[in-house]
Write a structure and sequence with these properties.
By secondary structure, the protein is an alpha/beta fold. 40% of the residues lie in helices and 18% in strands. It has 2 domains: 234 residues, Rossmann fold; 76 residues, no CATH class. Helix 5 packs antiparallel against helix 6. It starts with a strand and ends with a helix.
């Protein structure tokens, strides 16, 4: 395994306490089978007798160690004496591979590998996985794949089937863009055609629909849809279209902490349906070692008046991690 350390040179004209930090970072490489991945490990200066680590599962898109939202979680945890591994997603930054051609199960295998590395390299007693947004969808897969994962944290990861999540987000985005009821209906009609293309490969009906959209009053919004039959998006959707996280949640035996923002119901995630589905499957499996919290926040879990993590949420999360059995 390779490491690169982040070093800081101090100017001693300042008081030493000015430079006091509760953690430092180390650049490392590790492997999922033959795939080489890169991450930063946040190492607490004083772990206060704890021996706990958290491996982060990144959200959607090209998310890496420079993702400010993901780093804010790593900094909060490391500041409280918890080891954190924050990766470059496969195909991002210094990590090999390509997330655009990866299934959720393959990304979960990367996460499981990161948890194994963190635990073995730093001789930690317990290491869990924490998924952010789409990473929260992948969390139960990683836990089901890797019995050595000590606990599971899902931050605003939907618990509904992938197709349902897409439609929920698309409708909310359409409404925010100012589309009227009939236009939203046409958006859904377009998604029916997109679904058929994914299943059958018949591009014809979509081509005509896209031309109509380009000439419509909502052409700017229409540009967000993949309009080329050879777009990488179609292959990625085919890999993950039938994915339902609930089948994996049903197999999760590890303690779980799940958090949503109530206002996300009108944005990215069907919050209340996700909560209900999780409650239902946990009741069916007689799972008692979980907590589900819903806070008065949006998708980013920020305070309403500033771009920083909700204090109540952070307090609950840290307390749970430190007490998890």
């Amino acid at each position: 395994m390779k490491r690169s350390y982040t070093l800081v040179c101090f100017v001693f004209a300042f008081p030493l306490h000015f430079f006091a930090q509760s953690y430092y970072t180390v650049g490392v490489t590790f492997f999922n089978d033959t795939l080489q991945l890169y991450a930063e490990v946040f190492i607490p200066v004083n772990s206060a007798g704890q021996s706990i680590g958290v491996a982060v599962i990144q959200g959607s898109g090209a998310s890496g160690t420079d993702n400010a939202w993901a780093r804010s979680f790593a900094e909060q945890l490391a500041g409280q004496g918890i080891y954190v591994l924050l990766p470059d997603k496969r195909g991002v930054g210094k990590s090999q591979g390509d997330w655009k051609t990866a299934s959720f199960e393959e990304l979960a295998a990367d996460a499981a590998a990161s948890a194994r590395y963190l635990q073995s390299e730093y001789s930690l007693e317990k290491v869990g996985v924490m998924g952010l947004s789409q990473g929260g969808v992948i969390v139960p897969v990683a836990a089901a794949q890797e019995s050595g994962v000590g606990f599971v944290i899902d931050i605003v990861g939907s618990a509904v089937p992938f197709e349902d999540m897409i439609i929920h987000e698309v409708v909310n985005t359409s409404l925010r863009e100012g589309l009227g009821p009939e236009e939203v209906r046409k958006v859904l009609e377009l998604h029916v055609l997109m679904k058929e293309f994914v299943k059958t490969g018949d591009w014809g009906p979509l081509e005509a629909q896209y031309k109509e959209l380009k000439a419509s009053a909502w052409a700017d919004y229409a540009r967000t849809f993949p309009q080329d039959k050879d777009s990488w998006v179609w292959g990625w959707i085919r890999l993950n279209f039938d994915f339902d996280p609930l089948q994996y949640w049903a197999a999760v035996k590890q303690p779980a902490f799940i958090a949503y923002g109530a206002r996300d119901e009108h944005d990215n995630v069907p919050v209340w349906r996700s909560v209900y589905r999780l409650q239902s499957v946990f009741a069916e499996k007689q799972k008692g070692n979980f907590e589900i919290h819903v806070y008065d926040t949006g998708h980013a879990m920020y305070q309403s008046d500033k771009a920083e993590l909700h204090k109540g949420f952070v307090a609950d999360l840290l307390k749970w991690i430190k007490e998890v059995k």
